[in-house]
Design goal:
The structure holds two protein chains of two kinds. By secondary structure, chain A is α+β, with helices and mostly antiparallel strands. Chain A has three domains: 298 residues, no CATH class; 112 residues, no CATH class; 57 residues, Arc Repressor Mutant, subunit A (Orthogonal Bundle), CATH 1.10.10.410. In chain A, 38% of the residues lie in helices and 19% in strands. In chain A, strands 1, 2, 7, 8, 11, 12, 13, 14 and 15 form a nine-stranded mixed sheet that branches. In chain A, strand 7 and strand 8 form a beta hairpin. The longest helix of chain A has 20 residues. Chain B is of the alpha+beta class. Chain B has a two-stranded antiparallel sheet. Classes of the chains: A alpha+beta, B alpha+beta. At the A-B interface, strand 3, helix 1, strand 10 and strand 17 of A face helix 1, strand 1, helix 3 and strand 3 of B.
Chain lengths: 492, 95
């Protein structure tokens, strides 16, 4: 591996007894390719089916069965490569990675070792507060997933379900360009966003459809790379962060006590908050790769790559830049709005109705906030983009106040309906008729002579009067008009 | 090129083939003979020659992404040495 040249900010270093340490991280992300059928067979990739139902004789590795490559899986890998601006290899080959495990009936995994379908690319990762880093991707290759072993059903036996066996995975290998757990988490988040945008992987980490092997080493800043340990199969972004923190501290302690790091595979145990050695896996690391004689080299026409490139949707970085330029939203808001393609589309549909900044505020603070609280995806939003758009245009036009808009949002959320009609039928229209507001102001002033006297001495009391008038008007008076009128009437 | 006895044992273990102590020397001899035979290839100068991947001018066959197989657990499990419901059952393997 190349010696990384980035100099990390001192805030990312980990203090130890002998001074600061730098953690160096590289990741292998396994992303399940979105497809109907498996990589080399015609059985379904559907999740949650009864055991061994989505299994063909190819997936069960019955003698004489031959793999036939799924074209769509190839296209998904190419799309993924294009989305990270990577080299697409027009010729790639499949190799056998040999090891024994009960959930791998072939006795080998078909993977791409020597010539992967995608070469070097890069991912720009936002770290907040305007800081961003470029993380190099070494390669993306296609490979088969294994089946699932279940160990807790019997004291002496393991149960094997091959439904996952043969499902297509992309292994996305990063360069050791990451320097903190925060960077690592941000990288996985960004990669997940990109894959979801292009529809190459659903990124569902709960189902194991995106998981990471994390390589961690530590060194004194500027020193050569330390010996790394690989933490296998970490299946949530939060756990990736925890595993890195814990593993880095473990290595620093060993080195500061004068010990050395053994290069090995480790397992992260979130319940115990530790990583531990998986020594039994070590021997299996002698994979004896060789070209799979059942599969000819995969040759892709440049025309197909061009066609896939032309059909790519607008990617998160481009969308974010456009949102900042066209809608004038802040970089942070643009990042939040473009995290999911569906959210970005929703925002744009809302923004068509009026002030884009207002649309961004309402979409992020009210809608996303409420959706998050209730654990709903944007697709399941009870308030449609047209309804929210209607609401913000009523605010922009001054028909309703911001406060009434919140009440209207509540009605849209719980009951639905057309915002403009609701404003009319429920009498929510903001009162801008000065005569009507004036009448209410006069009533409030007449009813509170002591307060009037106090207000002359202490002008900030006007806020109390505004509150009373707003209350008396059911929130429908225009707050600015109320303020102006009261100032004049109270002579302050 | 030749192999030593520990390599013979390691290769056997990786391939999950049980090899008795008295068989190791014989297998070493056989492996050495195979390697010597293959070694003859290294006499050829193949600089700049593309690796040959097949003898017929065909390209890889691709399949459309459609579900055309599976949904028959009985067929998949019929040769299983042991099963429990529709699971394969094997001696416990755990880290």
């Amino acid at each position: 591996m190349n010696a990384p040249s980035r100099v990390p900010a001192s805030s990312k270093l980990i203090p130890g007894a002998t001074g600061d340490w730098e953690v160096v991280i590289g990741m292998e992300i396994h992303a399940q390719v979105t497809s109907e059928a498996k990589l080399f067979s015609g059985s379904s990739t559907g999740f949650g089916a009864p055991p061994n139902s989505h299994v063909s004789l190819v997936d069960a590795a019955m003698p004489g069965m031959l793999p036939v490559l799924n074209h769509e899986c190839v296209r998904q890998a190419i799309r993924s490569g294009l989305a990270i601006n990577a080299q697409i290899n027009l010729v790639s080959t499949f190799d056998r990675k040999n090891y024994f495990y009960p959930d791998l009936p072939q006795g080998y995994q078909i993977s791409q070792y020597k010539s992967p379908i995608v070469g070097e690319g890069e991912v720009t990762v936002d770290l907040g507060e305007g800081e961003s880093i470029v993380v190099g991707v070494e390669r993306i290759h296609l490979e088969q997933d294994a089946g699932k072993s279940i160990h807790d059903q019997d004291p002496k036996l393991s149960f094997v379900d091959l439904n996952r066996s043969g499902v297509a995975l992309m292994e996305i290998v990063s360069k050791p360009d990451l320097r903190s757990s925060e960077e690592a988490k941000a990288y996985v988040t960004k990669l997940r966003t990109i894959l979801r945008y292009i529809g190459a992987c659903d990124g569902d980490m709960d189902k194991g459809n995106l998981r990471a092997d994390v390589n961690v080493s530590v060194r004194k800043p500027g020193a050569p790379l330390g010996t790394r340990c690989e933490i296998k199969n970490v299946n949530s972004i939060r756990f990736i962060g925890q595993a890195i923190e814990i593993e880095a501290r473990r290595q620093i302690e060993i080195l500061e006590d004068g010990g050395t790091i053994d290069q090995e595979t480790r397992l992260f145990d979130p319940s115990k908050g530790e990583t531990r050695s998986m020594r039994s896996k070590e021997e299996a690391h002698d994979y004896r790769y060789f070209p799979d004689p059942d599969l000819l080299p995969l040759k892709i026409a440049q025309a197909e790559v061009d066609e896939l490139r032309a059909a790519l949707p607008e990617l998160p970085d481009a969308k974010k830049t456009r949102f900042i330029a066209d809608y004038g939203v802040t970089p942070y808001d643009a990042m939040v709005l473009t995290l999911e393609r569906e959210s970005a589309d929703f925002f744009e549909a809302v923004a068509k109705h009026g002030d884009p900044k207002l649309a961004a505020n309402w979409t992020i603070n009210e809608l996303f906030g409420r959706l998050n609280k209730q654990g709903l995806a944007i697709e399941a939003s009870p308030v449609s983009a047209a309804q929210l758009g209607g609401l913000i245009s009523l605010v922009s036009e001054g028909v309703i106040s911001g406060k009434i808009a919140k009440d209207l949002f509540e009605i849209l959320w719980t009951e639905g309906g057309d915002p403009r009609e609701l404003v009319e039928s429920r009498g929510l229209r903001q009162v801008t008729d000065v005569g009507a507001i004036e009448k209410v102001c006069d009533e409030v002033i007449a009813a509170n002579p002591e307060k009037v006297a106090q207000a002359k001495a202490k002008p900030t009391l006007i806020g109390w009067f505004v509150g009373q008038v707003m209350k008396a008007s059911g929130g429908k008076a225009n707050p600015q008009a109320v303020n102006d009128l009261l100032k004049r009437k109270l002579e302050i | 090129m030749s192999v030593d006895e520990s390599t013979v044992r390691r290769v056997a273990k990786l391939a999950r083939i049980a090899v008795e102590d008295h068989e190791v020397a014989k297998l070493k001899g056989e492996l050495d003979a195979i390697l010597a035979f293959v070694e003859e290839l290294s006499e050829l100068d193949v600089d700049g020659v593309e690796p040959m991947t097949g003898v017929t001018p065909v390209s890889i066959r691709l399949r459309e992404d459609a579900v055309t197989d599976g949904e028959n657990a009985e067929r998949v499990l019929q040769n299983a040495p042991a099963r429990e419901g529709d699971f394969f059952v094997v001696p416990k393997v755990v880290e």
